[in-house]
Amino acid sequence: MTEPWLDPLKFGIFYGGVGGGLLGALGGILGALSGVLAPKGKGRSFILGTFTLMTLFGIANLAVGIYAIVNRQPYGIWYPLLLIGFILTVVFAALKPVVRTL
After folding, report:
1. What is the DSSP string of the chain?
2. CA separation for the pair 25, 18 (Å, rounded)
């Protein structure tokens, strides 16, 4: 195993815990906005643009997480990256067509 990029425990707490919590809260807010505004045809470009941005951020997290596995980083480094990346990519990519049709 190579030298860890960061302290795995601190990275897991701050990026995985705090970052994941904030991204989850943002996802909840976007979901509420989508449910209220999209059927009315308001804010559609903002919501769909934010969905795209969150999907791209998820893909970037997945890419860095896979790179961390290839570089044999510890579990505390690659797991939060892959978890956040997978959730963001799947949720926002799957819901974007649904919101678009509202």
Report:
1. ----SS-HHHHIIIIIIIIHHHHHHHHHHHHHHHHHHGGGT-SHHHHHHHHHHHHHHHHHHHHHHHHHHHTT--HHHHHHHHHHHHHHHHHHHHHHHHHHH-
2. 11
Is a pLDDT exceeding 90 seen at residue 102? no
Does the predicted TM-score (pTM) go above 0.85?
yes
Q: Which two tokens stand for residue 15?
A: 């990026």
Task: Please report, for the chain, the start and end positions of each structural domain, with discontinuous segments joined by +.
Answer: 12-101
The candidate with the shortest Cα–Cα distance to 9, out of 76, 71, 72, 54, is 76
What is the per-residue pLDDT across 37-88, written as a single tens digit (0 to 9) for each? 988 889 888 999 999 999 999 999 999 999 999 999 999 999 999 999 999 9
